[in-house]
């Protein structure tokens, strides 16, 4: 299976280890990985701020690689959602859009959790990001009041020694929201502090998510409040100790 790997701009620039871990997780799962070097951004920051016209031609590198791979995988639920539901939607058919997968979605739906070999003997609190939960249907949002499922939890269940905690309000927004954190910083920080209190009450050592953007925001809150909790992208956990 040939997989195109798209490492989003902010991960490439600020958290490159997440990109490397994603690559290694895919390779360990038996995938032939083609690294996308041309795209700088999926266009989400501009589009969310009302400047979608500024993303013209951003789709071209993705359109070039899609016919050449079985799937296009990215370690970001929000970028995956934007690619499949906005940037690429006017240009490709539904079956091509279905190739775009967030990492845990790909591992759950295509590879299978039994192919994951990792060890992470720590107590980890799971933050369920908005785009992953409500955009990509990686799990059941609490407000729907329907039978619960979580693709993310099923994938992480394959990690040896992991003590995974899904605290109450795990699917409440962390407060980042892209440009929201800039224009409504006071509200954003308060939401981050609420999330920190929830995770702290669960007595976890790490907070994990599918989106490094959420974790970047929480990392700033943790540091400002001198919390001992650390953030870790799910790709880092899936590539640990194996």
TrEMBL record:
Sample GO molecular function, one term: oxidoreductase activity
Domain of life from the UniProt record: Bacteria
Domain Cysteine-rich residues, every copy: 3-83, 124-218
Source species of the chain: Sinomicrobium oceani
GO cellular component: cytosol
Cited InterPro entries: Cys_rich_dom
PANTHER family per record: LACTATE UTILIZATION PROTEIN A (PTHR30296:SF0), UNCHARACTERIZED PROTEIN YKGE (PTHR30296)
Name under which the protein is recorded: L-lactate dehydrogenase complex protein LldE
One Pfam family in the UniProt entry: CCG
